[in-house]
Write a structure and sequence with these properties.
2 domains, 5 helices
Length: 201
């Protein structure tokens, strides 16, 4: 059994080698023929004088700088009157636009400054109210804790007042924080609208 398998493997490998050798010998003349035809073509191109004339290729090194390159065709010459009219129109537009743009820009800056100023005033007011609440709470707490007898007699009402003050202080602190966040948002919107940074602060 081993002998049959060995003989089959030898026969198969012999057939494969023969097939490969035949394929290589068949491919060799085709390659030689391709190379000779390429060589013939190169000789033919060298002998042909029309092939030597190459079209002009423009790049950054040989691009003309003293003359304009026409893509579509030549532009018709304009008369002196047309050129003068165009220049006058440009001067009028240039003179009108900056003043209009400046006026609009100044109005925009004033509008944003008004919004920012109003928001800063709201923050100042809320901060002062928070400060007053905190001081009032500290005074009441100092009075309450200074007298032990008063603390024992008024324990329940003080606990309720204490909780109310702490809640009011927390609410006022939240309103101050919200007002500061709103100011920050307004400043960012003003920057996006084109208001100079020095006028935003």
């Amino acid at each position: 059994m081993k002998r049959i398998t060995r003989q089959a493997v030898i026969a198969l490998s012999t057939l494969l080698l023969a097939a490969l050798a035949g394929a290589q010998s068949a491919a060799a003349p085709a390659q030689a023929q391709d190379q000779s035809s390429l060589g013939d073509y190169a000789r033919k191109v060298r002998k042909d004088p029309a092939a030597k004339a190459k079209p002009k290729v423009f790049d950054n090194d040989n691009l003309p700088t003293d003359d304009k390159i026409s893509v579509v065709g030549q532009k018709p010459p304009e008369t002196a009157a047309v050129v003068d009219d165009k220049n006058k129109d440009k001067d009028k537009d240039a003179a009108a636009k900056p003043s209009d743009d400046d006026a609009q820009r100044q109005a925009l800056i004033k509008e944003w400054q008004g919004k920012l100023s109003a928001q800063k005033d709201a923050i100042d007011l809320a901060s002062r109210e928070l400060d007053v609440l905190q001081r009032e709470y500290q005074l009441r707490a100092a009075v309450m804790y200074a007298d032990a007898g008063n603390r024992l007699r008024n324990e329940l009402p003080w606990d309720k007042e204490d909780a109310d003050y702490k809640q009011k202080i927390a609410d006022k602190q939240k309103s101050v924080d919200d007002a500061k966040q709103k100011l920050s948002d307004l400043q960012e919107q003003a920057r996006k609208a084109g208001v100079p940074a020095g006028m935003i602060e």
